[in-house]
Amino acid sequence: RKEVEQDPGPFNVPEGATVAFNCTYSNSASQSFFWYRQDCRKEPKLLMSVYSSGNEDGRFTAQLNRASQYISLLIRDSKLSDSATYLCVVLTGTGGFKTIFGAGTRLFVKA
Amino acid sequence: GAGVSQSPSNKVTEKGKDVELRCDPISGHTALYWYRQSLGQGLEFLIYFQGNSAPDKSGLPSDRFSAERTGGSVSTLTIQRTQQEDSAVYLCASSLSRGLVANYGYTFGSGTRLTVV
User: Fold this and answer.
1) A43 and B111: CB-CB below 8 Å?
2) Cross-chain CB nearest to A43 (options B56, B101, B109)
3) Contact (CB, 8 A) for B108 and B91
4) Residue A33, Cβ neighbours under 10 Å: how many?
5) CA distance A107 to B106
6) How deeply is B16 buried, as exposed, middle or buried, from its count of CB atoms within 10 A (0-12, 13-18, 19+)?
7) Which of the residue ranges A27-41, A62-76, A80-94, B101-115 has the most confident prediction, judged by mean pLDDT?
8) Mean pLDDT over all residues of chain A?
């Protein structure tokens, strides 16, 4: 079993739709969680951190479920510009120093 | 500099040749990381530098891979006797310190796309 698993997709949604991605992690001692966005042939960029209480940034909401060991990303009112690959990132190990990147979920938003 | 700079952006090399990839981190960032991303795959950790020392080189796939960092700044990743399976995008990232990654994440360079033919 991979340490961090994501549904590779692709998710094809129309503009204005709400879409959600999940990411599961295997190490219950994992400490910090992030979502990164990666556009085609570009570097990953930090989208948002994921806090235990859940957090929102505009149209994006991230949640953490420690009991079930997954994090989620919800995108409301999808825009064409949201089309990208979304990477789940988990920090674990002593001091949270081991970083595992998921393989990503591809999202296509269509007009 | 304003961001993490990597060069070259693209490199095509013949199997068996050596290549050097360069990373110039954000000024003042003490932690520097090399990752590799193959097509459709997640990022694979290669090596981490704190200052000029590499406390974690556990991800280097073979002894053909080496890296150094000088002056607490620029880092070079060297691949000797390249093989076709080395073809990938090599990404460099930096952070103020490793401990702050948990708060602020990584800043990545745009990568070097290596193709071994």
Assistant:
1) yes
2) B109
3) yes
4) 25
5) 22
6) exposed
7) A62-76
8) 92
Residue B31 token pair: 């932690």
Beta-carbon pairs below 8 A across chains A and B:
46
The residue among A23, A43, A47 with the most chain B CBs within 10 A of its CB, best to mutate, is: A43
Lowest mean pLDDT among A1-5, A25-29, A69-73, B7-11: A1-5
Number of CB atoms found within 10 A of residue A40's CB:
8
Q: Is A29 part of the contact surface with chain B (CB cutoff 8 Å)? A: no
Tell me the per-residue pLDDT of A57-93, one tens digit each, with 9 for 90 and over. Answer: 999 999 999 999 999 999 999 999 999 999 999 988 6
Distance of alpha carbon A81 from alpha carbon A30, whole angstroms: 31
To the nearest whole Å, the CA of A1 is away from the closest chain B CA by: 15
